[in-house]
């Protein structure tokens, strides 16, 4: 972990800490040298070129900050391996992909850039059916890796009179010199302040001849309030009509939304719905809710600072949030705030691995992980006689061990040590 000791340079508030009432159910090994890199992926299905087949497209992004770069003459290079396996309902391998990808940057600053990404794309033409997609990514120079499983049920776009593909959000769209249309997928469905428009790509399929068809674009809040609507008419091709729909981002404020595309008339219609997040400037991608981001400062910020942020409204709330992070930025002369990125990265890791009765960042293991980072060693004791299951995390540099006991037998591991020991261990 690149920021393993960064938190030691910041004075954490040791008083007025909130007690954690619930612990997580996750039970996994954490190793500082093998901790899973955080990567993002998006999946799009559409009609393949061959009749009766469905094309599955997988897009993967991993931040430079998650990779191990090595100096090679005048450049810095990283390598990651992407593996994708498609399994049928009998768990037999239908398709597979494995490839090592090289990432080369010119400066050391680029190796730590949390908002610069390496990108990979994989495509399969499959018969419409249920599948399990196993996606794995490994950093080849640090031996860190992990995988996700995704359940899919591919439909046959060719058998419907009228249908549309999945939606794809693109950071940019352009046409090459040879006339071929290209796009760079966003993958996260999460737009920062640097984005000026929402570039939506999808395809409309019709076996019935139509000269044109109405399209309605809707953006709704979680409370179902419509904040943006666009109605227009689009000309259709024979079977496949590619569509690029651009929406000015200035029309929509930062927040979480439901994006809906409706295509059709009173006789025939189809639609797609996706979650969309527009984030505040400089807020880490994994953090999409400013109020929650302020709550999550409880392990690092003074309670009075948190109270002042919560009390503020509108732009003032974001200004106070930014001012706090600026005050603790370990490298104020650079664009990225490494401490903020690492802090919320740890929260994201805790949510992914320790969530159960409560969110992972609120669990006891989440608390220790966020404050101290990954332990140097983990011991498991799940079935010892005359003892409840327990786990021991060891931090060699601090000379501390933390014991988490599952008193209920349901994976509810809670910290045996007093909470103040977590902070004194810094």
Label this structure with key terms.
426 residues, alpha+beta, Immunoglobulin-like, five-stranded antiparallel beta sheet, 7 helices, 15% helix, disordered N terminus
What share of residues are in beta strands? 35-45%
| Integer tally of domains | 3
- How far the N terminus sits from the C terminus, by CA atoms, comes to 17 Å
Instruction: Report the major sheet.
Output: 5 strands, antiparallel
Task: Describe this structure as you would to a colleague.
With 426 residues, the protein is α+β, with helices and mostly antiparallel strands. The protein folds into three domains: 6-34 and 286-424, no CATH class; 39-155, Immunoglobulins (Immunoglobulin-like), CATH 2.60.40.10; 160-283, abc- transporter (atp binding component) like domain (Coagulation Factor XIII, Chain A, domain 1). The chain is built from seven helices and 22 strands. It has helices at residues 108-111, 290-295, 303-311, 315-327, 338-354, 364-372, 419-424, and strands spanning 39-47, 54-63, 70-72, 75-87, 93-105, 117-126, 130-139, 144-153, 162-164, 168-175, 181-185, 190-191, 197-206, 212-220, 226-235, 240-248, 255-264, 269-278, 377-381, 390-395, 400-406, 413-415. Strands 3, 4, 5, 7 and 8 form a five-stranded antiparallel sheet that branches. Strands 9, 10, 11, 13 and 16 form a five-stranded antiparallel sheet that branches. A five-stranded mixed sheet has the order 12-18-17-14-15, with no helix packed on it. Strand 20 (390-395) and strand 21 (400-406) form a beta hairpin. It starts with 38 loop residues before the first strand and ends with a helix. Mean pLDDT is 82; it is low at 1-34.
């Amino acid at each position: 972990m690149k920021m393993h000791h960064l938190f030691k340079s910041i004075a954490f508030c040791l008083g007025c800490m909130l007690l954690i009432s619930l612990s997580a159910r996750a039970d996994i090994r954490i190793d500082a040298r093998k901790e899973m890199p955080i990567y993002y992926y998006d999946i799009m299905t559409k009609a393949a070129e061959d009749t009766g087949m469905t094309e599955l497209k997988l897009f993967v992004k991993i931040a430079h900050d998650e990779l191990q770069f090595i100096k090679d003459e005048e450049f810095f290079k990283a390598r990651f391996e992407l593996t994708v396996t498609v399994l049928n309902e009998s768990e037999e391998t239908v398709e597979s992909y494995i490839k090592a990808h090289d990432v080369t940057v010119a400066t050391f600053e680029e190796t730590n850039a949390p908002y610069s990404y390496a990108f990979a794309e994989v495509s399969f033409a499959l018969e419409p059916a249920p599948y399990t997609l196993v996606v794995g990514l490994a950093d080849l120079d640090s031996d860190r890796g992990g995988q996700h499983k995704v359940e899919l049920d591919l439909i046959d776009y060719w058998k419907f009179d009228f249908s549309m593909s999945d939606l794809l959000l693109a950071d940019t769209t352009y046409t090459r010199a040879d006339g071929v249309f290209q796009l760079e997928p966003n993958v996260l469905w999460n737009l920062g302040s640097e984005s000026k428009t929402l570039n939506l790509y999808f395809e409309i399929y019709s076996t019935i001849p139509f000269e044109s068809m109405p399209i309605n674009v809707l953006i709704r809040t979680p409370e179902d309030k419509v904040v943006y609507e666009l109605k227009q008419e689009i000309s259709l091709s024979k079977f496949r009509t590619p569509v690029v729909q651009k929406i000015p981002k200035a029309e929509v404020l930062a927040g979480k939304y439901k994006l809906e595309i409706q295509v059709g008339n009173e006789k025939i219609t189809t639609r797609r719905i996706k979650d969309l997040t527009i984030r505040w400037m400089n807020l880490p991608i994994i953090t999409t809710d400013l109020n929650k981001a302020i709550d999550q400062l409880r392990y690092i910020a003074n309670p009075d600072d948190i109270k002042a942020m919560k009390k503020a409204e509108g732009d003032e709330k974001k200004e106070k949030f930014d001012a706090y992070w600026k005050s603790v930025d370990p490298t104020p002369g650079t664009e990225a705030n490494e401490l903020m990125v690492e802090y919320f990265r740890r929260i994201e890791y805790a949510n992914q691995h320790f969530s159960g009765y409560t969110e992972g960042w609120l669990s006891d293991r989440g608390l220790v992980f966020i404050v101290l980072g990954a332990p140097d060693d983990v011991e498991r004791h799940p079935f010892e006689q005359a003892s409840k299951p327990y786990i021991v995390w060891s931090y060699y540099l601090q000379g501390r061990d933390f014991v988490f006991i599952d008193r209920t037998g349901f994976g509810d591991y809670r910290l045996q040590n007093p909470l103040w020991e977590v902070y004194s261990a810094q």
